[in-house]
Design brief:
Helices cover 81% and strands 0% of the residues. With 242 residues, it is mostly helical.
Length: 242
């Protein structure tokens, strides 16, 4: 998925503004996004304020990425600046796709068309994970551009995991309790994901578990909390040892 650098400089901020406007619509409309959340609960429903807090902080990282993208020059005289511009431009279409998906998701969510909104969650999450796993170069800790691109992509993918679990559960299993299979697969999935993650994506997985734990109750809440502690330990061990 490649576009020219000049196109990327406009496509990415337009998609960002579209998503931002859609989120404002979701919060200010009647019913609003939290009303929809409260009316449709399932075993992966998180505490909604955790998502709001994540989205709020994520906007700063995305705005910084856009600032870097706008000022970057693929024809700069300095090689490091050209390398940064290539990285920013390479991620731009994936950044735009993610924002377009989440912005469009909001309209179907507020319309209580949850199976349709689920499609956009899956597209966003899978494409961000694909970019993270297959296209994102290793982080260069001497480059703020590299660090920032890793943060934006991995937080997009990380909160996307929660989006998929949440939306899928309420679209197809509303008002249901988790089966033994769901409980088992949740622990295995997050354990394997944590074992393959760096601090950024791994931290997002832990955050997802905490958000779900706070949003649930009873033994399932306790189990999700235990998974969060276990995932945090796995992420820490993997990255400290490395």
């Amino acid at each position: 998925m490649g576009i020219s650098h000049s196109t990327a400089r406009y496509a990415a901020p337009i998609a960002f503004l579209y998503n931002f406007a859609a989120q404002q619509y979701g919060m200010l409309s009647t019913p609003n996004m939290k009303n929809i959340h409260d009316a449709h609960l399932s075993f992966f429903s998180p505490q909604p304020w955790f998502i709001a807090a994540f989205f709020f902080s994520q906007q700063f990282a995305q705005a910084a990425y856009l600032y870097k993208l706008w000022r970057s020059d693929p024809d700069a005289k300095v090689e490091s600046e050209r390398r940064d511009a290539r990285l920013l431009g390479d991620y731009a279409p994936w950044f735009a796709l993610g924002n377009l998906c989440i912005g469009t998701w909001m309209f179907f969510w507020n319309g209580e068309m949850l199976r349709t909104s689920d499609v956009f969650c899956w597209i966003n999450t899978l494409t961000q994970i694909y970019y993270m796993a297959a296209r994102l170069p290793p982080m260069d800790t001497t480059s703020t551009t590299s660090i920032l691109t890793h943060v934006v992509n991995k937080t997009f993918a990380g909160i996307g995991v929660l989006d998929v679990l949440h939306n899928t559960s309420i679209a197809f299993y509303q008002d249901q309790s988790p089966s033994t299979l769901v409980r088992t697969l949740t622990g295995i999935g997050f354990g394997l994901g944590s074992a393959a993650s760096d601090w950024i994506f791994g931290g997002c997985l832990v955050y997802d578990l905490v958000a779900m734990a706070v949003g649930q109750s009873g033994n399932w809440r306790n189990l999700l909390g235990a998974y969060a502690v276990g995932s945090a330990g796995i992420v820490a061990a993997r990255n400290i040892v490395r």
